[in-house]
Amino acid sequence: MKLRKSWSSLYLEAGCDEVGRGCLCGPVVAAAVILPKKFKQNLVNDSKKLTFQTRMELDSYIKENVMEFAIAELPPSFIDEHNILNASIHAMHRAVDQLTTRPELILVDGNRFHAYPFIPHQCIVKGDEKFLSIACASILAKNYRDQLMIKLHDEFPQYGWNTNMGYATKAHQNALMEFGPTIHHRRSFRLDYSEAVPDLQEEYIEA
């Protein structure tokens, strides 16, 4: 499906998205992307609809062909202090902060956002399935976070973060029962799985 390039031709837009809201551990990561008018969609789509390999192949294409992009992350400690919704929105703000070109409109995936100073925004439910800039942001944020979780897996291999990326798969829950939480786990999330573990899908799904 061909994604829309802009909400309105009147504004310079930045598409924003975040990943990692539903994870038990690791940071929440957000990206902001400004597209040039002649940006070609190529295989860009909602990151959840792309394979790991395709997302990684698109990473360089997006970074080399967009007008500008930025990525920001916030650690579990920030999530625990401010809650995951506020942390996700703040991460998107931080990504926009890093853009050297100031957008005139922010396109946000989802239905919740805190007003960014002096720049209007538009929330779009399932925006990563509809707008090219948001889809690009979702790919960059997901690739960044996946690579980070794969590195953290080397430190704590028993939790399987190289495959579940920190989501509450059955294997991850079993590891929490056996080994307890790490410094990378979100203490404000449910981490006690001493009760019977449901038969969950082993592959992670980004909400």
From TrEMBL:
PROSITE patterns for this protein: RNASE_H_2 (PS51975)
EC number(s) recorded for this UniProt protein: 3.1.26.4
Reactions listed under catalytic activity: Endonucleolytic cleavage to 5'-phosphomonoester
InterPro entries per the UniProt record, alphabetical: RNase_HII, RNase_HII/HIII, RNase_HII/HIII_dom, RNaseH-like_sf, RNaseH_sf
Subcellular location: Cytoplasm
Taxonomic superkingdom: Bacteria
Keyword set, alphabetical order: Cytoplasm, Endonuclease, Hydrolase, Manganese, Metal-binding, Nuclease
Signal sequence annotation: none
SUPFAM superfamilies given in the database record: Ribonuclease H-like (SSF53098)
GO biological process terms, semicolon-separated: DNA replication, removal of RNA primer; mismatch repair
Top-level EC class: hydrolase
Keyword Hydrolase included in the entry's annotation: yes
Principal localisation: cytoplasm
Cofactor: Mg(2+); Mn(2+)
Binding sites annotated in the UniProt record for a divalent metal cation: 17-18, 109
Chain coiled-coil ranges: none
Cofactor note: Manganese or magnesium. Binds 1 divalent metal ion per monomer in the absence of substrate. May bind a second metal ion after substrate binding.
GO cellular component terms listed in the entry, alphabetical order: cytoplasm; ribonuclease H2 complex
Residues in RNase H type-2 domain copies: 11-202
One function term, GO molecular function aspect: RNA binding
Entry similarity comment: Belongs to the RNase HII family.
Chain's role: Endonuclease that specifically degrades the RNA of RNA-DNA hybrids.
HAMAP family, per database record: RNase_HII_B
Protein name, UniProt field: Ribonuclease HII
